[in-house]
Specification:
This protein has helices spanning 37-47, 64-68, 88-96, 121-131, 186-189, 200-210, 230-242, and strands at 6-10, 31-32, 35-36, 52-57, 77-82, 107-112, 115-117, 135-141, 149-150, 163-164, 176-185, 215-219, 224-226, 257-259, 264-265, 270-272, 275-277, 282-283, 288-290, 293-294, 299-300, 305-307, 310-311, 316-317, 322-324, 327-328, 333-334, 339-341, 345-346, 351-352, 358-359. It is of the alpha/beta class and 363 residues long. The chain has a 7-stranded mixed β-sheet with strand order 5-4-1-6-11-8-12, sandwiched between helices. It has a 6-stranded parallel β-sheet with strand order 14-17-20-23-26-29. The longest helix is centred in the middle third of the chain and has 13 residues, at 230-242. It is elongated, with a radius of gyration of 21 Å.
Length: 363
């Protein structure tokens, strides 16, 4: 039995749904609860016994290694492999295979770089080894599975099919979804085609199933959240601060708020529901920040109200402005007496003048 399986982290996506957060920063490097989201994944992998991690990078690949280096600060050995052209999930896995040290039958953990989860990683590895599977998948149960790939299993947990994003009631045959964490038998990775994009969800897994391979599912319905949208990302960060989502990497005590070094919060400002105030950020007198993230150097003026929103690095929210369920991009300036709500996104460096105007996507 391999005591310390290797891991591959898929961190090459462009994070299109997260724009403008990802215009200047790759999705896994956007801060959640005070540190790049990727830090939480790496810390949880290390806590589960993983020692060697290969990162499959692509979009803004140059920012990862300067931040994490060789991984020694986290007790890991990190390597980086950059795709010249995007290869999809399967192609990325195959592309980094030469950096793995595992034997043909050893387990290799694979994580998507945008999933916040309380998955019991050792239990997934144990399930994989005890079942003798070629690939094992973390499955989670959700109330509305239409946005996900369904994975029905038999009574022993063996995968029966992969059903992509069903829409009709007849198609929804299970509430189990592919939760984005896998264990591959090392030799199976070498069967993925090279030099072209490959999707594990749409090509690799269905192909393995058709060929008679053993794919095992393990349902673990602890905390799970896809951080693909700004609203989900803000909620995930808040859940980390509140202690609802597990991570050994939160840089401070869990509670209603996390205030990082150098931040200034006025004595009568109110921070709640997992709010994060980044390094050097400013919260003015009488401001109310609820369930939101202020990135480094953000400025929220007096009397402003920010709810379930993300304020980018160096961005400014003017006096008495209300921001609800919105994203203010890095360096943007939302002037005084405005109302931004309902998923509105103010682009990086944009300037919104003062004026008491209500802005939302449907107006």
């Amino acid at each position: 039995m391999t005591q310390a399986p290797e891991a591959i982290l898929l961190v090459g996506g462009k994070g299109t749904r997260l724009r403008p957060l990802t215009v200047r920063t790759p999705k896994p490097m956007v801060p959640a609860a005070g540190v790049p989201f990727l830090t939480h994944q790496l810390a949880r992998a290390r806590a589960a016994g993983v020692e060697h991690v290969v990162m499959a990078t692509s979009y803004l690949a140059e920012v990862f290694e300067p931040y994490f280096g060789d991984g020694s600060d986290l007790g890991l050995h990190l390597e980086y492999v950059t795709e010249e052209e995007p290869l999809g999930t399967g192609g990325a896995i195959r592309n980094v295979a030469p950096r793995l040290h595992s034997g043909p039958d050893d387990p290799v953990l694979i994580f998507n770089g945008d999933i916040l989860t309380g998955l019991d990683i050792p239990a997934l590895v144990a399930t994989h080894q005890e079942s003798g599977a070629d690939v094992s998948l973390h499955l989670s149960r959700v109330e509305d599975p239409r946005a996900f790939g369904l994975v029905p299993t038999d009574e022993a947990g063996r995968v029966l099919a992969f059903l992509e994003k069903p829409q009709t009631p007849e198609e929804i045959v299970t509430d189990q979804i592919n939760a984005g964490a896998y264990v591959f038998r090392r030799s199976v990775i070498d069967t993925i085609p090279t030099g072209r994009p490959v999707s594990v969800e749409r090509e690799t897994f269905p192909g393995l199933l058709e060929s008679g391979a053993h794919l095992q599912g393990m349902v673990d319905s602890t905390y799970w959240l896809d951080l693909g949208t700004p609203q989900a990302f803000v909620r995930g960060s808040a859940d980390l601060v509140l202690g609802r989502a597990p991570s050994p990497a939160v840089p401070g005590r869990r509670g209603e708020s996390l205030i990082l070094d150098g931040a200034h919060v006025a004595p009568d400002a109110k921070l709640s529901e997992g709010t994060v105030v980044g390094v050097g950020a400013h919260v003015g007198a009488g401001a109310r920040i609820t369930g939101s993230t202020l990135l480094d150097g953000a400025y929220v003026a007096e009397g402003a109200v920010v709810t379930d929103s993300l304020i980018g690095a160096g961005a400014r929210v003017g006096a008495r402005t209300h921001v609800t369920g919105a994203v203010i991009g890095d360096g943007a300036d939302a002037g005084a007496d405005n109302e931004l709500r309902d998923g509105l996104r103010l682009w990086c460096d944009a300037v919104l003048p003062d004026g008491g105007v209500r802005f939302s996507p449907d107006r």
